[in-house]
Design brief:
Blueprint (H helix, E strand, L loop, with lengths): L15 H7 L8 E2 L1 H10 L4 H15 L16 E2 L23 H11 L6 E2 L1 H11 L5 H18 L6 E2 H9 L1 H14 L2
Antiparallel strand pairs: 1-2, 3-4
Helix pairs in contact: 2-3, 5-6
Length: 191
C-alpha cells in the first residue's frame, strides 16, 4: 500500500524527538536528570512548584523506558536522550513516529480535525477535544501523559487571546520553542 504524499517521516541523523528533549540536557552529556529538567523548566519561565512537579513526573515516568535491559531502576531517574523514542506514550497525536521522526501529515491533521475557531490555532476547548480524540481505550498512562504535556504547553504558550498557535506547537515538537522561551525569560529578568 502506497503512503499518501506528506505522510512520510522526515529523516535526519538526530530524530526530532531527541531535539525536542535536548534543551533539558543542561550539561549536554546525553542524559537528563531531574535537576536538569527542573533547571530547564525554570529557564523557560516556570515557577518552582511547576518546575519541581514536572521534573519528578517526567523523569520518574520516562527514566525506566529509556534504560532498556536494566534490571533495577536508577533512583537518580536519568533519561537517556539516545533512547527517548522508547518513552513515547500511547494516546498521542502520532506526530512523532516510532523512531522519533516528525510526520508532517499527522501534524496537519491536528488542525484539520480540531481547529474550528482559527485554522492556524487551537482554543482550550479544541485542545480538550483533540486530547479526547487521541485517547486509546484503557491507556490511562497515555491519557495522563498527553493531558499533562498539552495543558502545560497551553498554559505556557497560549497567546493573549487564548489561542495556541500552529507555529508554536510546531516549535515545541522540534524543541526550538524552549530556546525561544528561555531567551525571552532571560530578557525579562534583565529589564
Amino acid at each position: 500500500m502506497a503512503e499518501e504524499p506528506g505522510s512520510e517521516a522526515i529523516e535526519n541523523d538526530q530524530n526530532v524527538l531527541q531535539k525536542h528533549v535536548e534543551f533539558f540536557d543542561r550539561n549536554n552529556d546525553g542524559v537528563i536528570y531531574p535537576w536538569e529538567t527542573f533547571q530547564g523548566f525554570r529557564a523557560i519561565g516556570c515557577g518552582i512548584l511547576l518546575s519541581s512537579f514536572a521534573a519528578m513526573f517526567i523523569n520518574v515516568g520516562l527514566s525506566g523506558k529509556t534504560r532498556p535491559g536494566k534490571r533495577y531502576p536508577n533512583l537518580l531517574f536519568p533519561i537517556h536522550i539516545a533512547n527517548i523514542k522508547m518513552a513515547k506514550h500511547g494516546s498521542d497525536s502520532g506526530v512523532y513516529d516510532a523512531h522519533g521522526r516528525f510526520v508532517p501529515s499527522k501534524f496537519e491533521e491536528i488542525f484539520h480535525k480540531y481547529a474550528r475557531t482559527n485554522s492556524e490555532a487551537l482554543t482550550a476547548d479544541e485542545l480538550d477535544e483533540f486530547l479526547k480524540g487521541n485517547r486509546e481505550p484503557k491507556d490511562y498512562g497515555g491519557w495522563i501523559g498527553g493531558l499533562s504535556e498539552w495543558k502545560i504547553l497551553y498554559y505556557l504558550a497560549k497567546d493573549k487571546t487564548g489561542l495556541l498557535k500552529k507555529d508554536t506547537i510546531k516549535a515545541v515538537y522540534d524543541g526550538s520553542l524552549f530556546e525561544k522561551m528561555a531567551a525571552e525569560t532571560t530578557k525579562k529578568k534583565h529589564k
